[in-house]
Amino acid sequence: MIAFLETDRAREEAAKMAASMLSSGSYSFPPSHDFPLSEIRESSLFAVMIARTGDGQERILRAFSGFLGGKASAPGYVNPCFSQHRYQEEMERNDRKIHELTKLIEEGEETLIPERKRLSDESIARISRLYSFSTWDGRRIPLPPKAVTGTGDCAGLRLINTALRRGWEMIGLAEFSADSSGKLSFRPPCSKRCGLLLPDMLGLDIIYADSSIAVIDKKEGMLSVPGRGEDKLDSASYRFHRLFPSSPEVCHTHRLDMDTSGLLIMAFTKEAHRTVSMEFESGTVKKEYEAVLEGVIKEDEGVIDAPIRLDVDNRPYQIVDYERGKRAITRWKRIKVEVIDGEKCTRVRFFPETGRTHQLRVHSASIGHPIKGDRLYGTRKDGERLMLHASAITLLHPESGKEISFSSPAPF
What we know:
Blueprint: E1 3-4, H1 8-24, E2 46-52, E3 58-64, H2 84-106, H3 113-128, E4 133-134, E5 140-141, H4 155-166, E6 169-178, E7 184-187, H5 194-202, E8 206-209, E9 213-218, H6 236-243, E10 261-267, H7 270-282, E11 286-294, E12 301-305, E13 308-310, E14 318-320, E15 329-340, E16 343-352, H8 359-366, E17 388-396, E18 403-407
Parallel strand pairs: 1-8, 10-17
Antiparallel strand pairs: 2-3, 2-6, 4-5, 6-7, 8-9, 9-10, 11-16, 11-17, 12-15, 13-14, 15-16, 17-18
Helix pairs in contact: 2-3
């Protein structure tokens, strides 16, 4: 994760939260002597979220990571992602026996180490089954298999889980730690733990989001926008608007083919949508793709300048047509020649200067090297994907006007 809704407003709420704790000497809301600041370490993580209820009311949610003073929750904070009552029952079930074994092991009974490990692993497995996380479409999912320790306990994820469970829209999120002077250090949701859960919870792999735009790492096989018919409603655009209902219904600023994976820009506001869409139309957005082509290309780089149009008798097939086609230009650079499934292929980077439908797929096929796994313009074996990925994008931020860049490694 790069950043997720870490807006100016969310950072301001985080600063208020930290200042309140410092002045009261307690981390609970309202303050209580049962929750003193002495239980907090400088590494302790907190988070604050601005959320909007279904009837338009704003709410401020708070969370901390893990346990503070042996407690998983406190007044003024959301609950953890498990039943605390059942958690305590599971902890107590084997704790006494584990402590007894530990004492005996410390006294020299080292043969008991495997038994203690068995009981400990059994307890951890049962506790892991207590975790449950809400998703964008109302389902509940468990911890993923072999999740690293601490997965599901992060402060930011607790807030996201609460908002999804209640059906509230997420407006801003700030996750932070604070030193003794109240200075805040902000950090985004972690990839190692939160990254295992958030794509399934949100229905999208959101690698960046602020108050104007979000950057999605779209998976191969997902539509960018709804197609015709109820069976083709599910798409990146549909899921985004369902997560963030205050965004424009047409929130996508450009598209990727269903078979293509990679970076996709969504807009939170009509103004941001208009500004970024105009950037794409004017050609100021810099895009980079990574692809694997069939066969061996000997040249280091080149330019494909071949106009494209729709084959009206064979939709959605596009063809090169030098008389009636629209101008289409693709620059490319060879990365390396490699062997995949026993066949020599060439990995390349594409830098499209225009954005025609299926441009990279048509241009690759036009030079005799279709993209590997292309069911329209090449050949696709069973279980094979289109080896085309939108790996990098650079644009001007619609509010600040500053150049921003994002990247995503090819998953093949």
